[in-house]
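Supplementary Methods, section 5.1.

A reviewer requested that the exact input to the structure prediction be made available. We therefore reproduce it here, unchanged from the version used in the analyses.
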Amino acid sequence: MTVGADGDRRPGRERLSERLAPDGDDGGPHGGAIDGTAIMLAAAKASVPASSLPRLLDRAQAYLDGRAGEYAQGFECVHEDDETAVFLVPLGHWDTKGLDLDFSHREVDAVRRAHAEHLRRVGADADRRDEFETALEIREVAVVSR
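The structure derived from this sequence is encoded token-by-token as follows.
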């Protein structure tokens, strides 16, 4: 479960890291800043093994987090909380970043799906689902840690 800003624990917003390392950091993959349910949904749809997705997301997260200032200045932030900032980025964003990260086409697709699923989860929680679905028709998503 994830603790909300008001201290409530909301079921369904569990982070993958909470399941992988409930008693502290085990040094294993955590899936970056992506919501645990979003990771599971993306893994079910992706053409990569579900066990490899958290590792890919951790690599992508390190890349994004190292450029957080660039994202804040250059892209529209559609959601912020204590843990993440969610940015709408141009189509093709993950194709370009995937080249930088040396990801295969399937790995890029899996990371893209996980970030999009995270936005959908945020949209459902904030009653902005339709707005975010429309945005996903013309943009991609990058979730950056705060």
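Residues 38-145 form one domain. These observations are discussed further in the main text.
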